[in-house]
Write a structure and sequence with these properties.
Layout: H1 24-29, E1 38-43, H2 46-54, E2 63-66, E3 75-78, H3 80-84, H4 93-99, E4 104-106, H5 110-125, E5 131-135, E6 138-142, H6 147-151, H7 153-169, E7 175-180, H8 183-191, E8 198-200, H9 206-211, H10 223-231, H11 237-242, H12 245-250, H13 255-265, E9 280-291, H14 294-314, E10 319-328, E11 334-345, H15 348-359, E12 368-376, E13 386-390, H16 396-408, H17 418-426, E14 438-441, E15 451-454, H18 483-492, E16 504-506, E17 512-514
Helix pairs in contact: 5-7, 14-15, 16-17
């Protein structure tokens, strides 16, 4: 590869497409015909390369930055050597160690990364006052009307920035530079060469670039969005470019969003049409050692709640919704609950008290690997309600908590009124996802606290601890006593029973139980 950093800007003009008249196809598609003046600077392997620059012993070795110092943590950055081995951002630490046991895992060092980011912004501000920090490792600038645009050109400014990064931040830190007519298109250009590259996209090569990409290569289009677009017959970036607003609306896009994408794909600058407003304030933590200790979990919950409260007060916000999330480890499954308070809250103690109430509903037998606290900005549809969601793999105790929590979520205690519990169960509030199974009271020994699975539909459940003849929401008719109770009452009153039995078992204590498979009647006793 040509060492573009060592070459002067004038000698690199042959690397880029010179300005020429727009093609007929570019005019028909309505592409932006202006000369590019927007640059996006993206630091390559930012956190890992900054660590290598800071610690010379790490240079040339595969390293990865994990969110936490545990094997279950997610990798947020990996060095070029690690990426050559297939270790990418988003992997778990234990997966990276399986690929390369000798990989070096480091925890994040935010002050070090912020210092490098501030240096990048200072370098860019020498060429333009219009600089936008997009993230800690990425920034853009607009060169329109600046002397350097006329003197060096957009590509020349990009090369000057790259040389300054190497000289001031460090030789281990490289950057990809994208040049285009808008920030989004310049970002696409920087993605074309993620190893110290410099690429340009304008009306002369936009179609050629799009023909080589897939939909998910476009910034802002993930797998879910690609599937929705495919339902409308949009399978490639060129299909996306030619799609009309009505066709995009058929893919589920709002009119405003569809119009914004039409401009964005043609190289025009678009505002925040995605409505990227904050949806919640949350903090989570991956436990170094999974635990069932309530005291340890409450201590962590207090710290997380305090962090969420500080961010809420800093933003001048208050809210009534508090939610928690638990991920079990090594057992597969998760548990989350959400409650709406009667009054808005913003302090860490108030959030902690609500979160501790929700945490009490978890299954105490399963090891907790990750714990999170969130304050969503949207409220549930039912004011004052408690919304619950359990994993299919949760235990019986956790699923029972979902049912009883609908009545006692704010108090944090399981209701002891059998009518309330049975009403919830009979109305089907706690069915397993994808089936009609739920919970029903049963004999001791058939599950935690005497609860057992019930395969009957909700309308056929007959809770035992209810007053006979009383109606329960969700049941088609008043409750009747179980058959063995009816039979025992008939014996006491010395009158014939109306219960048809196929077989009678006489227990050691003289109690009689009727079997549900009735084929013929037999006398009782």
């Amino acid at each position: 590869m040509i060492d573009t950093l060592a070459a002067p800007a004038e000698s690199c003009k042959h690397l880029f497409v010179s300005a020429r008249a727009p093609s007929r196809k570019a005019i028909e598609l309505g592409l932006n015909l202006a000369e590019p003046a927007t640059l996006v600077i993206d630091l390559n392997c930012a956190f890992a390369s900054i660590e290598q620059q800071h610690d010379p012993s790490l240079r040339g070795r595969p390293i990865a930055i994990g969110a936490y110092g545990v094997d279950a943590a997610t990798i947020v950055s990996s060095s070029r050597e690690a990426r050559d081995l297939g270790i990418k951002t988003g992997m778990k630490v234990f997966e990276a160690k399986a690929i390369c046991p000798a990989i070096v895992i480091r925890e994040p060092n935010p002050p070090l990364y912020r210092a490098a980011s501030d240096q990048l912004i200072a370098i860019m501000e020498r060429h333009s006052p219009d600089v936008l920090r997009m993230s800690i490792d990425e920034a853009s600038m607009n060169l329109a009307g600046t002397p350097d645009l006329k003197k060096l050109g957009a590509e020349g400014v990009g090369l000057a920035v790259k040389r300054a990064i190497r000289a001031e931040i460090g030789e281990c830190v490289t950057a990809s530079v994208g040049v285009s007519t808008s920030i989004w298109m310049a970002k696409q250009a920087s993605n074309l060469d993620k190893r110290d590259g410099l690429r340009r996209i304008d009306h002369t090569n936009l179609i050629l670039v799009f023909e080589r990409l897939s939909l998910t290569d476009l910034s802002g289009i993930a797998d879910a969005s690609a599937r929705r677009l495919a339902k409308a017959g949009i399978h490639t970036p060129m299909d996306f470019l030619r799609a009309t607003n009505s066709r995009l609306r058929n893919a589920g896009m709002h009119e405003e969003v569809a119009g914004g994408w039409g401009k964005r794909l043609r190289g025009f600058e678009v505002g925040a049409f995605e409505h990227a407003a904050r949806k919640s304030y949350s903090h989570s933590h991956v436990m170094a050692r999974a635990t069932t200790s309530q005291s340890e979990l409450e201590e962590l919950l207090m710290r997380l709640s305090d962090m969420v409260g500080r961010r809420l007060r800093g933003a001048g916000r208050r809210g009534r919704v508090v939610s928690i999330g638990v991920v079990y480890r090594p057992d597969v499954g998760h548990f989350s609950r959400q409650m709406t308070m009667s009054e808005p809250i913003a302090t860490g103690d108030e959030i902690y008290q609500a979160a501790r109430t929700l945490l009490a509903a978890r299954d105490p037998r399963l090891l907790v690997g990750t714990l999170g606290v969130s304050r969503p900005l949207s409220t549930p549809s039912a004011t004052g309600s408690v919304r619950t969601r359990c994993s299919v793999r949760d235990s019986w105790a956790a699923r029972r908590s979902c049912a009883t929590g609908s009545l006692s979520g704010i108090r944090g205690t399981r209701t002891r009124n059998p009518l309330d519990v049975s009403s919830i169960l009979a109305s089907g509030h706690d069915r397993r996802p994808g089936s009609d199974r739920g919970l029903a009271p049963g004999r001791p020994g058939r599950g935690p606290r005497g609860w057992r699975p019930c395969r009957r539909p909700a309308a056929r459940r007959r809770p035992r601890a209810l007053e006979v003849g009383r109606r329960v929401p969700g049941l088609a008719r008043p409750l009747r006593a179980p058959r063995h109770q009816t039979l025992a009452r008939a014996r006491r009153e010395r009158r014939p029973s109306r219960v048809r039995l196929s077989r009678v078992d006489v227990r050691r204590r003289g109690e009689v139980r009727a079997h549900p498979r009735a084929s013929r009647a037999e006398p009782a006793g």
